Backbone:
């Protein structure tokens, strides 16, 4: 009886893990599509109004505000497109994460300093969801529904130490359950 309950619990937990694992790539795709689009729109808006962005950066005391306005606008626009397509995802995620950390430091420093004393201020600030999304892609990668993944499958061991898992199969193969 106890063994039967234990086996049922193990099977149920394994099923739950399987469901969670099967949702990883669709979730990462949704994050990339939505937040990549948001980054691209934000970058495009900045590109269309560089003088205003330069003035804003100047008011924040950012060095070389004209150059930095172009760098940030292009990084957000191109980076957003890269996230949508899923190419260069980890590098893009890192670059956009740094961009959002700098946004906190430059424009929302008092909110950043209240991260533990008043976390609501931190996560209600404009850069928060952008930071979270770019950090998520940087840490977890783009998922299997991305050009990065397809290219790594096509070209071999791209961005991995080994293309072969412990089970001896390629990281690109989709395991087929036995009946």
Residues:
């Amino acid at each position: 009886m106890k063994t039967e309950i234990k086996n049922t619990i193990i099977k149920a937990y394994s099923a739950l893990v399987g469901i969670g694992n099967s949702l990883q790539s669709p979730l990462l795709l949704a994050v990339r599509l939505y937040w990549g689009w948001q980054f691209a729109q934000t970058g495009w808006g900045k590109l269309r109004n560089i003088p205003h962005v330069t003035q804003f950066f100047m008011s924040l005391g950012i060095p070389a505000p004209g150059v930095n306005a172009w760098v940030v606008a292009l990084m957000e626009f191109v980076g957003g497109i890269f996230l949508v397509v899923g190419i260069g995802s980890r590098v893009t995620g890192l670059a956009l994460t740094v961009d959002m950390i700098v946004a906190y430091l430059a424009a929302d420093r008092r909110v950043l300093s209240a991260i533990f004393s008043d976390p609501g201020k931190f996560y209600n600030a404009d850069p928060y969801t952008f930071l979270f999304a770019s950090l998520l892609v940087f840490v977890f990668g783009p998922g299997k529904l991305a050009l990065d993944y397809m290219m790594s499958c096509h070209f071999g061991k791209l961005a991995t130490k080994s293309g072969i898992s412990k089970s001896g199969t390629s990281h690109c193969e989709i395991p087929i359950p036995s009946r």
